[in-house]
Design a protein that fits this description.
Elements: E1 2-9, E2 12-19, H1 21-35, H2 51-82, E3 91-94, E4 104-111, E5 125-130, H3 135-148, E6 151-154, E7 166-175, E8 178-191, E9 213-219, E10 233-247, H4 253-258, H5 264-298, H6 305-323, H7 329-337, H8 340-363, H9 370-381, H10 389-398, H11 400-422, E11 424-429, H12 432-442, H13 502-505
Helix pairs in contact: 1-2, 3-5, 5-12, 6-8, 8-11, 10-11
Length: about 550
């Protein structure tokens, strides 16, 4: 194999690689020998077919396979010979004029990871903000939980339903007078004003009472998950079977017993554990952002443009998706364009921090154990249909870059924990409101880094706010994902899902050092997805 470097500019490299016809032919011979025992041909005993006949029968396929293996090996040899650390999968192009029996001329293009001097971890100083899980916080959590467990009690039959009441209905839907699949139901509980059903459905139930019959006229949303119902006007013949009103939730031993617990004290114990986990999460988030600020402020090096572009595209897709659910999507997207450069800077920061944490972890022997990796794979497999989970496991086992992408978040968290152990940490007790305000102050969109001119140990405001509404992770924003269910009318609608704001996440989400390449659909099982739901109007 011959190699000639044709480009060496910054982190970009390009090579001209020649794989000789002799090497390819030798690989064809190896392929012939490997399949010879299994080849069957009339007039020959099994395994005794002459090699020249095997070549004649399977020549094109053997040559193509040998060429692919020679190219694969040639690229690996190039990486080893030149001591290259590719940022992403190298791009390999075979000359158009290649013919079987001739040398193969390749162009190998790639971006390499930068050489990073072993980062110094001396002198790290962090403040740990802690919030005690006191009785007030525990009771507030129980009250929040009780509100989510809203109960309804029967109202007088003459009671007219109002917002906040629950109505039990039977319904039958039709489009142009024709019933459709999934359009009928019995004893469905509808809380008026909850925003769980398609627009207009709940509003028309205001004023109904037990025994009423009413025809509701609605229009299915354009993003409704059933194709033939998207944007269609429909009618629902509704029979009101019962009207219920909210029942007061008294937090006592009986309430705890209704949840299957022994007493209110036992409920408080469980809720205290949950509150402590939430508060510890806030403490870690704040510390991690301040740690990453210090690392970003003290390290500056070029990062591979393709990695930045991949990270930026991921951020941008999130933001465009969110903007599409605003009241005026076009205006939101136009405003978003004004901050394009800011988000690209965030992508650079994420990539740089990802590479930096990777370098620190390697220098200090931080590892993800095989048991931890196995747990990660099994957890990730749960998002697929049961029949596809084993295929996903095999996919990760066979694709090193896919495994690296899955491993990266845990690895980075372990590096962060390692740095916490090495840092000088001072503790300060604060209120929940204070630590949330401190975290949200970091969500302001400023991109920290060398030469930014700010003291990174203090909060600060950016010159301008992001124009697009930021779906920053608020304290109550993390909800259990909707389970897969059959689409039925009147379909419930999910509140507009807020993707984690990249400007906020930039403080705590370094980009993985390497990303898995896109795979063909047949290589990777399809993810299990809940049917699309109508996004709630922004309030």
């Amino acid at each position: 194999m011959k190699t000639v470097e044709t480009l060496n500019e910054g982190l970009k490299r390009e090579y001209r690689v020649t794989i000789t016809a002799k090497d390819i032919d030798a690989r064809v011979d190896d392929e012939v020998k490997s399949i010879a025992p299994t080849v069957r041909m009339p007039g020959f005993r099994p395994g005794k077919v002459p090699p020249n006949l095997i070549r004649k029968m399977h020549g094109p396929a053997l040559s193509a396979d040998a060429l692919n293996k020679a190219i694969d090996q040639g690229v690996r040899d190039l990486m080893a010979k030149e001591k290259l650390r590719p940022a992403l999968q190298p791009a390999v192009a075979l000359d158009d004029g290649y013919e079987a029996g001739k040398d193969a001329e390749l162009t190998v293009s790639l971006e390499v990871l930068p050489d990073i001097a072993t980062p110094s971890i001396d002198g790290l100083k962090l403040e740990r903000l802690t919030v005690p899980a006191d009785d007030k916080a525990v009771m507030a959590k129980i009250e929040e939980f009780a509100a989510q467990m809203k109960r309804f009690e029967e109202a007088p039959k003459t009671k007219k339903a109002a917002e906040g009441d629950q109505v039990i209905i039977d319904f039958a839907g039709s489009v142009d007078g024709v019933a459709f699949d999934g359009g009928t139901g019995e004893d469905m509980a509808v809380e008026i004003g909850s925003g769980q059903l398609i627009p207009g459905f709940e509003d028309q139930l205001v004023g109904v009472k037990t025994g009423d019959e009413k025809v509701l006229k609605v229009t299915f949303p354009d993003d409704y998950p059933v194709e033939n119902l998207k944007g269609q006007p429909a009618e629902f013949a509704v029979t009101v079977k019962e009207v219920k009103v909210p029942a007061a939730s008294k937090i006592d031993d009986e309430f705890a017993k209704s949840l299957g617990l022994e007493s209110l004290d036992k409920l408080k114990e469980l809720m205290k554990d949950q509150v402590e986990q939430e508060l510890n999460g806030l403490t870690r988030t704040y510390m991690k952002r301040k740690l990453l600020d210090q690392l970003a402020a003290s390290h500056d090096f070029d990062v591979p443009p393709t990695m930045v572009e991949a990270e930026f595209n991921q951020i941008w897709q999130q933001l465009e998706h969110e903007a599409s659910h605003e009241e005026d999507p076009e205006a939101a997207k136009a405003e978003l364009e004004n901050d394009r450069d800011d988000y690209r800077s965030i992508a650079v920061r994420r990539v740089r921090l990802g590479l930096l944490l990777s370098e620190i972890g390697q220098a200090h022997g931080v590892q993800v154990s095989s048991q931890e990796m196995q747990r990660l794979v099994m957890q990730a497999a749960q998002q697929y249909r049961p029949e596809d989970r084993q295929r996903f496991v095999e996919y990760v086992q066979q694709d090193a870059l896919a495994a690296a992408q899955l491993r990266a978040p845990l690895y980075e968290d372990k590096v962060v924990d390692f740095l916490f152990e090495k840092a000088e940490i001072s503790d300060r007790e604060v209120t929940r409101e204070e630590i949330e305000a401190a975290i949200e102050a970091d969500d302001d969109g400023h991109v920290h880094g060398p030469g930014c001119g700010h003291d990174h140990d203090h909060d600060h405001k950016p010159a301008k706010k992001a124009a697009a509404k930021k779906p920053a992770a608020k304290k109550d924003a993390v909800k259990e994902e909707a389970k897969e269910e059959k689409a039925e009318a009147p379909a419930k609608k999910a509140p507009a899902k807020k993707a984690a704001a990249p400007k906020a996440e930039a403080e705590e989400k370094p980009a993985a050092a390497k990303k898995a390449p896109a795979k063909a659909a047949e290589d990777k099982p399809a993810e299990k997805k809940a049917p699309a739901k109508k996004a709630a109007a922004k309030k």
